[in-house]
Write a structure and sequence with these properties.
- 2 copies of one chain form a homodimer.
- The first copy, chain A, has 2 domains: about 150 residues, Rossmann fold (3-Layer(aba) Sandwich), CATH 3.40.50.2300; about 55 residues.
- Helix content of chain A is about 50%, strand content about 15%.
- Chain A is built from 9 helices and 6 strands; from the N terminus they run βαβαβαβαβαβαααα.
- A 6-stranded parallel sheet of chain A has the order 2-1-3-4-5-6, sandwiched between helices.
- In chain A, α2 runs parallel beside α3.
- The longest helix of chain A is centred in the C-terminal third of the chain and has 15 residues.
- Chain A is elongated and about 60 Å long.
- At the A-B interface, α4 and α6 of A face α4 and α6 of B.
- Chain A binds a DNA duplex through α8.
Chain lengths: ~220, ~220
DNA sequence: AGAAAAACCATATAAACTTTATGGTTTTTC
DNA sequence: GAAAAACCATAAAGTTTATATGGTTTTTCT
């Protein structure tokens, strides 16, 4: 980010108060060598429009994206994650930062893979100081993760067990209460295979001969769900 | 870490100046509610002795470990990584922090899996302020990673390709210049298998029909080495 | 430039692992 | 305590991975 005078930020959150908070804090602060101009959007569609317009107009340097966006219209529900993917496509040079209420492993892992954001802030950890530190870091030396995000990331990194997509799907369905016998409708494996894999994962987790409750809690412990 | 008055730290580095630096900075600073007492060790053996003695005496709360330790005697070369594993075994409640010259992905990934340290500092990024911040964070809200460590971690997290241990070993040996035909001495696979795996990894990386140089650089890009 | 080494490729066979079908036992659930 | 679901075991089929072998291409060194 060369010697730009004004850093243009687009903050997207369906709670207007939130983006307003960001705006007041960041526009008022005098950063070293630049100042912030903040735009806001309240929905996926509004944000998409502004992002697309920015290509021919003034470009954004930073996107602050909430993950939960109320779906403005019918059709497939679009999340902040999709918005992040879109932003990466359209403005590959801009920084993408997630501002999320979630600090669960599954969400963070998924976003780290699909978007690889330059920052991830858990909302309960956001204050004036961390907001400013995030902007500085993200511009000059990304990434910036708040502590709770770091804890999820650490859990994932410390994990030496590798599960393939089918294993992860099984764990996910277990966690949302899908019955094993019904998983054949969601996963292209036979029932004995699924049973086998569950047994295998349990042994990887060191909880042989225990029930599914133990499997779920261990998977959660290890950051898979 | 309840209401302890003195936090006992053991710093291990074969450069005495380094541990002395830590000692002066941390013992002089007045933390909120505690002060630091620093012990130092210059070799694996000396550190091991002090760790084992601490069990029956005054326990350590934090270990600051260099990864490169000159091997004091013959026998298998022990690294700071081994020391970390040992510390975890003997003092499971203590914090383990690596102070490393390395910021390469392979080293960091390996340590994140084998020790899962509460902190990782790249030496070029250590100064008085970061040292103090590390102590505070590691005691109250681990983990603490410096920016370069974070960058390696981010790369790894963003990666969706999963390689098994043999694949990683092949990449590692490639990176240190081991000839493919000699890898059979380090990896329990036949030569054709190794060739096959290399081809397979290249296709995963999207660099089919290219040479080993391309493979190494792509593996480095993706955070495997 | 040319010989030697290493890398690379292709094929066939062997070995290891996964999936599946089937039929049974144990545990949960209501 | 009956029904449902989970769990287990075995054998056969299918798939993947490893290996042996022998060849071609590329790199390296002089």
């Amino acid at each position: 980010m060369e010697d730009i005078q004004t850093i243009r930020v687009l903050a997207v959150d369906d709670h207007e108060m939130t983006t307003l908070g960001y705006k007041f804090i960041l526009e008022d602060y005098s950063f070293n060598g630049y100042r912030i101009h903040m735009d806001t959007a309240k929905s996926f569609e509004e944000a998409e429009t502004k992002i697309r317009q920015s290509v021919t107009g003034l470009p954004y340097h930073i996107f602050l994206l909430d993950i939960q966006l109320s779906s403005g219209r019918e059709g497939p529900v679009k999340s902040g994650e999709d918005l992040g993917i879109l932003a990466r496509e359209i403005c590959p040079d801009a920084r993408v930062v997630f501002m999320s209420s979630f600090s669960d492993n599954y969400r963070i892992n998924s976003i780290m893979q699909s978007v690889d954001p330059d920052g991830y802030m858990v909302k309960t950890e956001i204050d004036e100081e961390s907001l400013r530190a995030m902007v500085e870091t993200v511009l000059h030396n990304p990434p910036y993760y708040t502590q709770k995000a770091l804890m999820a990331i650490r859990k994932k990194m410390a994990n030496r067990i590798e599960l393939d997509d089918n294993d992860k799907r099984i764990l996910y369905h277990l966690s949302i209460g899908t019955k094993t016998k019904d998983m054949v409708n969601h996963i292209s494996l036979s029932l004995p295979s699924i049973e086998n894999r569950k047994r295998h994962i349990k042994s990887l987790f060191g909880i042989e001969k225990q029930n599914d409750q133990a499997l779920i809690s261990e998977a959660r412990n290890r950051g898979f769900i």
